[in-house]
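Good morning C.,

I know you're traveling, so I'll keep this short. The sequence:
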Amino acid sequence: MILKALVRTGYTTEVEALRFRWQEYLTCTEAHRQPDYAVCFPGNILDKITDLAHQGLRDLKCRVVTPGVRDSVYVLLNDAWQEFWRNPNGYSEWEHEQVNRLPNLLAAAHHA
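The tokens, ready to paste straight into the viewer:
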């Protein structure tokens, strides 16, 4: 569902990277999809759920992020994922620094 939502909002490159990482995880854990997965979760139903969720967000007037959005909070969240994959061992320290900066970031975004 998450990958479908990301594709729907234009994050196709990121989806490919996530699929690659997910496949790495499955290989490392020797996990396998259950044979009846496609019966229980057919693609067309998942697509419909994704569409309905997206429409619900729009109806609620929520901002749906797309790759072109450059707001500081969105950028920070995307930077967090990049940092996590780039340096998982140092991520906690990086995250702590960003949390300390967050009030100033929010204040600046509010006044912009």
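Safe travels,
E.
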